[in-house]
Amino acid sequence: MHIQQIRKMLIGQAMQGFIFSEGHAAICSHNGYCVNAKSAIDTCQHFSHSGYMTENATPSRVREIRLARDISSAELARAANIQPPTLSKIELGQRGVTKTFASAIAKALQVRIEDLYAPIGSEIPDPVQNDSPSRIIRQNTVEKSPSLSMTRDIPVFGTAACSLDQGAFILHAGEIIDQAPRGPKIEYRKDIYALYIEGDSMEPWKRPGQLVYVDPVRKPNKHDRVVVVIRPDGSSYEQAYIKEYIKRDDGKLVLKQYNPEKIIEWPSHNIVSIHRVLEPEDIL
Predict the structure, then answer these.
(1) Dmax of the chain from CA atoms?
(2) Which stretch of 25-34, 112-121, 223-232, 235-244 has the lowest confidence by average pLDDT?
(3) What are residue 159's phi and psi, to 5 degrees?
(4) Less Cβ around it within 10 Å: N or C end of the chain?
């Protein structure tokens, strides 16, 4: 995607009040963040120069066809044997639909490969037969079973790993790539959101591609896992991390990383927000 195209997209989204990116740009006020369109544009330029938002990564029809098929992002990722963050990049236009993924995605969506490259807004193709049965249909059947029924309306925001130290990532909070099941203990919480894990810095607790639920309101306690957003000194962008919370005092935030294991400290004035990651007992 060219920088000028990105500029137009971001300015349009900022005018409409959309969130663009947590980690290296904008985050909406309903999650406790606010940033203007200029910083989002600066972010795009930063990642274009660093190679993470490439010139040949053009938007695809994958998301458009997936939604028309009433398939969740997680279901498509499983059926195509693709990590959810990778699928997120493809749907967001940060990664092209390469030959490596095109065949698997086309089979999972029951379309021809060329349908993935048709212009956005083209007619949605009818399902076509492929060589292997659809794993999506079988999984949908299980997930819609009355005994396992849960409302799927928790927004899952797209993420993208970046080349910074300590597992930094971008959170594309303006782009809902999936909807996660709402557990009974968060039935009435309208502010909960979810993320797919990027990178391996928190293994063995979580592996890349696993889902976590995040509470932007509840204050974390020691040993809670948290999503931390910081703005480094002299930087025009923000970056996000998932770490274990240790303490916040003496003018600094202390966190723990698992892989490799180490203690990380940031000055308090660099902290934009700290959101608590929910454990299973907080959800079910």
Answers:
(1) 63
(2) 25-34
(3) -130, 160
(4) C
